[in-house]
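Re: your question about Tetraspanin-13

S., sorry for the slow reply, the queue was backed up all week. Below is exactly what I fed in.
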Amino acid sequence: MLPLAKIQYMVILFLLFLAQFSIACACLAVNSEQQEMFAEQGWDKVNKDTKSQVQNKFLCCGFRNQTKPVNGTDKLPSCEEVNKKCTYAPICQPCIHELKETIDYAFKLVGGIGLFFSFTEVGWSHFEKTLDNVTMSHRTREAANALSLSHSTMIGLPRAQH
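Result:
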């Protein structure tokens, strides 16, 4: 590999490491209040069908409470069907209570995987540099042997036996 190409490759690899490491640390540093804030922002942006699927899977209703649709708008899924499935109470709990553990697990998992791969990149680049040094050392030795062989045959000396 050309020296310039190798330098560019290492710079790109370092920038990738920084990005992965930063995101992983951010995921691991997010506290439960921030997780709830992100979850609520996501809840506000997803469509009615997705909310309904979450409510049916986790047997919950609404994000923080069972809000009724305002003025006949149908932005929120109905809690009637889900409430029929809740056997532990007459109405289901808000989804934030059911999702807290799952959200926390997801943040920790993503952070752990990010750290694993960022440090794997550092280890791989170190291994690659070591391997490159060994290969270069071997090439230098071969070139020196070839040079001494060609020089000794030019002046008429017998070849050294290896």
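Residues 95-154 form the longest helix (60 residues). The chain has a mean pLDDT of 81.

Happy to talk it through on Thursday.
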